[in-house]
Design a protein that fits this description.
CATH class of the largest domain: Mainly Alpha
Strand order of the largest sheet: 3-5-4
Distance between the termini: 20 Å
Number of helices: 5
Strand content: 5-15%
Shape: elongated
Radius of gyration: 17 Å
Structural class: mainly alpha
CATH superfamily of the largest domain: Winged helix-like DNA-binding domain superfamily/Winged helix DNA-binding domain
Largest sheet: 3 strands, antiparallel
CATH topology of the largest domain: Arc Repressor Mutant, subunit A
Number of strands: 5
Amino acid sequence: MCASRRENDDGPAANVDFNVDRDDPMSLHDQVAGEIRRAIAEGEIGPGERLPPAVDLAAVLGVNKNTVFRALHLLRKEGTVDFTRGRGVRITGGPDRSQVVEQVRDLLEFARARGYRGQDIVEIIQSLS
């Protein structure tokens, strides 16, 4: 689902595709936070860009606005976003895709040293997701 653009004095909000899965055992607010982290890591949004208002994100995702607020508070606590009344939610930093790739490489190296093949790891990950 694509979060809509809304303009204010600071310009348009980023137009980003966020999704949640109600069947996933992960809490909805953690999924929302994860989607924002993913969008940053994939370069869909970057530092200084504004997210759509929480109420718009909630409407697009089909979740309660408090779920989005909870996710945003998690992200603010970790330094990924900052929000100020009247200025919206801005991206201040976040995970880098290269960090994820590095962790996957470390996992593969760890697993291979223990006799697992790449496909074995893919199957394990798929069974967990």
